[in-house]
Amino acid sequence: MLGEKNVTFNCMSCGSTDLCFGYLGTAANTFVPTGVFTVHGFRSRSYVCLKCGYMGHYLPKDKLEKLREKFSTQYEEGV
Ligand SMILES: [Zn+2]
User: Fold this and answer.
1) Can you tell me the distance from the alpha carbon of 68 to that of 63, in angstroms, rounded to the nearest whole number?
2) Distance in Å, CA 55 to ligand 1 centroid
3) Distance (Å) from CA 35 to ligand 1 centroid
4) Does the predicted TM-score (pTM) go above 0.90?
5) 20 phi and psi angles, rounded to 5 deg
6) CA of 20 to the centre of ligand 1 (A)
7) How far is the CA of 47 from the centre of ligand 1 (A)?
8) How far is the CA of 48 from the centre of ligand 1 (A)?
9) What are the C-alpha distances in Å from 56 to residues 26, 40, 48, 62, 69?
10) In degrees rounded to 5, what are phi and psi of residue 27?
11) How far is the CA of 50 from the centre of ligand 1 (A)?
12) How many Cα atoms within 13 Å fall on the side-chain side of residue 18?
């Protein structure tokens, strides 16, 4: 959990913090943003709630910052 110590996630379904983090094991674990050029997309992370089984997906903060940079750059150039 490098760099994620200050980030607290709650289950989107039941609000539990009893979560198991990981990655999806297939090529579908990559988020490719529409309208933003990326070669590889952004690899998402996933969690499963150990209380209710809800599975959530998110981008780690470093990836999110890269996406923000790319998105704002593209927006300025494209409009
Ligand atoms: Zn839950």
Assistant:
1) 9
2) 8
3) 33
4) no
5) -110, 120
6) 11
7) 10
8) 8
9) 15, 21, 6, 18, 24
10) -65, -15
11) 7
12) 6
Residue owning tokens 């009893």: 18
Is the pLDDT confidence value at 79 over 60?
no
Q: List all residues 6 or more positions away from 45 whose beta carbon is below 8 Å from its beta carbon.
A: 21, 22, 23, 57, 58, 59, 60
- Reading the block at residue 41, the tokens are 């997309």
What tens digit of pLDDT does each residue of 39-74 get?
A: 778 888 889 999 999 999 888 899 999 889 888 877
How close is the Cα of 71 to the center of ligand 1, in Å?
A: 32
**Cβ–Cβ under 8 Å, residues 52 and 14:** yes
Contact call for residues 38 and 29 (beta carbons, < 8 A): no
Please give the distance, rounded to the nearest whole angstrom, from the Cα atom of residue 63 to the centre of ligand 1: 25
